[in-house]
Amino acid sequence: MSTVGDLLTLKVEKLLWRGRGLARQDSGQVVMIEPGVLPEEVVDVRVTKTAKDFLQAEAVKIQSPSPLRGIHPCPHAADCGGSRFGMVAPETGTQLKADILRDALPRALGRDHGLRIPELRVVPSPQGWRYRQRGQIHVASGLPHAMGHASNDLVPLTDCHLLAAPLASAMPALAKGLPDGRFTIAASPDTGQTATERDNVLLPFSFPDFGLTLQLPPSTFFQANWALNQHLVRSTVDALHGFERIADLFSGAGNFALPLASRGKSVLAVEGSAPAVDTGMRNADRLALKSVTFRDANLAKPAAWKMVEDFAPRAAILDPPRTGAKGIGRTLLGMPGLERLAWVSCDVVNTVRDAKPLLAAGWSISSLTLFDMFPGTWHMEVLMILDRP
């Protein structure tokens, strides 16, 4: 029986949700290997945790590399935990994520709903590297760092291939003006202007398809891959064509609500972050988008849902945090006027958990799209459209 610290040599069968590799010992015991391995590779691993039915391990050496494996372009890749899938070409990474999603969804849905999965649409990122307009750095002694892989150690950075070129170039100067700690830095895709969360500036972010330019403070959350976000927003808006009253739940600063309002939709945007709500309201006022209403409310509280019920939406967008929104499926079932949901998920396994009451009541998944929002990593964004029977 294997114990923590043991070294094993295993062959990776496939990749699982969250990018882990699945392997088995000769006994049949499952070993889940931390992200960074590829299917068909023979790897030496060290056991890091034992459980009743499986082991967890980390790779220490790739004995027989996959033909998909190439050289990681980042000089910090061996130590930094930021881009564990950067050893494959971006288009290969996108396909691997599609395979992971196709494997994970039937398991998450279970026997009752696993056969109702529509064909997966896949939208790659326009840029495989240098795509992030927003990111976090750890500052120590005025220098930028990243968190080390599987540790709390800080890794000094001279560059980051995930960051958009203007942001990566400005990173040392931005860090120099900050105290020790973790900070958000951002760059405008329109102008290349950079700033930190401590700077009192507004950066322009355009939606060309909707004729909008938002002004966003670096401290407010927005989709870091702004180029692919254009496709996500357009797909979501298109999916809600024909619906005039739409609730945008966990709306942030209005990533969906403002483009919808530009199309004349009546939108209630509900968000629990007061700064994000303030940013959304300011942009709506500046752009004269009068059909959107922003509300600062915690969707874990009944009062927030009373507000949504009074609005009487015919469709809703849900974009909850990675941990999901437990119980939301039952709450949505209590709103008989809802006909369609556009569920945006950065962890679709948690989303399926939350959506199961709807599926059990007859709602169906009518379309499923993977957006490779985070190349170089195992993370992905999924747009799931659900319809009332």
Fold and architecture overview:
With 389 residues, this protein is of the alpha/beta class. Among the domains are: 7-64, OB fold (Dihydrolipoamide Acetyltransferase, E2P) (Beta Barrel); 132-199, no CATH class. 24% of the residues lie in helices and 30% in strands. The chain contains eight helices and 21 strands. The chain has helices spanning 90-109, 165-176, 226-239, 257-262, 274-286, 302-311, 328-333, 348-360, and strands at 7-11, 14-15, 21-24, 30-33, 42-50, 54-64, 120-123, 134-140, 143-147, 154-156, 181-187, 194-196, 203-207, 212-216, 245-249, 266-271, 292-296, 315-318, 340-345, 364-371, 381-387. The chain has an eight-stranded mixed sheet, with helices on both faces. Strands 1-5-6-4-3-2 form a six-stranded mixed sheet. α1 (90-109) packs parallel to α8. The mean pLDDT is 95. S-adenosyl-L-methionine binds at residues 223, 250, 271, 319. Belongs to the class I-like SAM-binding methyltransferase superfamily. RNA M5U methyltransferase family. One of its GO terms (molecular function) is rRNA (uridine-C5-)-methyltransferase activity. It holds the Pfam family TRAM.
Describe the structure in brief.
The protein is of the alpha/beta class. 24% of the residues lie in helices and 30% in strands. Among the domains are: 7-64, Nucleic acid-binding proteins (OB fold (Dihydrolipoamide Acetyltransferase, E2P)), CATH 2.40.50; 132-199, no CATH class.
